[in-house]
Amino acid sequence: MDQSPNSSLDNALKQLTYGFYIVATRKDGHDLKTRSEDWISAATVSWATQSSFDPPLITIAIQKDSDVNETIQKAQSFSLTVLGKNDEALIKKFAQQTEVDYGAHSVNGISYTEGETGAPVLDCGIATLECKLEDALTTHGDHILFVGKVIKATSKDGQPITEMDTRKHYEGVSPRS
After folding, report:
1. Which secondary-structure segment (H or E) carries 48?
2. Strands of the 143-155 sheet, one edge to the other
3. How far apart are the first and last CA of the chain?
4. Is residue 138 packed enough to be buried (19+ CB in 10 Å), middle (13-18) or exposed (0-12)?
5. Which of 162, 41, 144 is nearest to 96 (CA)?
6. For 121-158, how does the pLDDT look when each residue is reduced to its tens digit (9 = 90+)?
7. Counting runs of H as helices and runs of E as strands, what totals does the chain give?
8. Is 10:32 a contact under the CB 8 Å cutoff?
9. Which strand (E) or helix (H) includes residue 150?
């Protein structure tokens, strides 16, 4: 049986490797169009990569229609937490609606501190990169690319979790195509 062009593309894209990360950002409510109060937005992402040695840059892909997109653009900063093999439950937890407890300084039940960039730094994962937004690339696709300059990095012992370690997949051709 011959494979259709989309099937070949889907199979090829699935050969790329993906990790799991949580991106978090914060902005005062008076600067946001969709919120009237201070807003923390956090979400699971799997499209993240280092994109420069000097200066150290990372690039993340964020859905255009998400709260995270607007908040990063307004805040001009974000943190990226690298999830470890023991953090699999957080993938689903941060793929849902963000629940913030400002009094307890927690996002989806995970405590955070304010980082040097103003972005929330979550108390989970095996590494965190705090970034100032350097650039954004908008294409005709459904995601926007944010390039962040790493301002501060922390790391702990552990191995990163990848999509190969889970049954979760965020790659290939969209079912809508």
Report:
1. strand 48-52
2. 39-45, 21-27, 77-82, 127-138, 143-155, 57-63, 48-52
3. 21
4. exposed
5. 41
6. 999 999 999 999 999 999 999 999 999 999 999 999 99
7. 3, 11
8. no
9. strand 143-155
CA–CA separation, 40 and 68 (whole Å): 9
87 in helix, strand or coil?
Answer: helix
How far apart are alpha carbons 151 and 138 in whole angstroms?
A: 23
Q: How confident is the model at residue 2 (pLDDT cuts 50, 70, 90)?
A: very low
Residue with tokens 């969709």: 34
Mind listing the pLDDT tens digit for each residue in 10-31? 888 778 888 999 999 998 766 6
Cβ atoms < 10 Å from Cβ of 100: 19
The token pair that represents 31 in the structure block: 């600067």
